Amino acid sequence: MKHCDILSQKMTKSLAFVAWLGCFLLEGAPALQAHELWIEPTKAHITTDENIIADLRIGDMFVGSSMIHLPGQTKQLAILTGDGMHPLTPRAGTRPVITLQPDTIGHIILIFESTDSYVRYEDGQKFFSFADKKGAGWVRDEHAASALPANDFVERYSRHAKASLSAGSHSPGQTLDSVDRQLGMEVEFTILSMTNQTGKAGETALEILLTYQGNPLANAPITLFTRAPDDNVSADRYRTGDRGTINLPALAGHDYLLDHVTLRQINPATDENGAMWESLWASLTFSGPQH
Q1: How far apart are CA 252 and CA 246, in angstroms?
Q2: Which of 10, 12, 66, 134 is the most buried (most CB within 10 A)?
Q3: 157-168, pLDDT tens digit by residue?
Q4: 53, 99 in Cβ contact below 8 A?
Q5: What is the residue extent of each domain of the chain?
């Protein structure tokens, strides 16, 4: 067989796969779409001679599959340190998505934003159940009031994830300088402050801000997933305060995933796939101090 024939067959198979993937994303991904996406470092506290290694994961209850790097589905991948923000450009197919040597001591934020994806709900009840789970029960009534079809409609969604980790060591009672800041994400968690609690062995107090289009989201529903040292995971529901903030303790040996979804109705005439709703997913992972 000629080289050009082999190449032609490979291209045909690649195009077929891309077409299948696009159909899958639009037609068959309701179960996947309802899951959280987060950045998970292998270690939340590293020494200056260790690499930062972090997976991009999708799943439920803080348990999920490790994803590969897909440039076409990545809007932004970056690291934020005291020296500023720097884009990351791993090769397509890389897993873990992030592996790099830190060049700074202190607080570090990893950032991932996805491009838009779509899911078709042949059964509208699956979408309304998802909205209920994310604290947006009003969606059901608004959908009906807008005379939208009860079934067979499209939703657009995107992910906006951060992960907090540190390089070097910190002493009890020390207020850590958070390098986190608002980065212009449509929906976003931002760590305002972190303090190692004096007199409380192995606990860090965090103040976290939730914003939508740069403005504080007051009284917004959020879910906090906590993974204990024995890998047991629990989920607790909270709401942000009047200033869009929440104060949380982080215990030594525990990992945390903060999750929020903003849902909004969109005009299907303005979307290439005729989506009627859009969900914007925000996540933040962090851990308690080292023992």
Answers
A1: 19
A2: 134
A3: 999 999 999 998
A4: yes
A5: 34-287
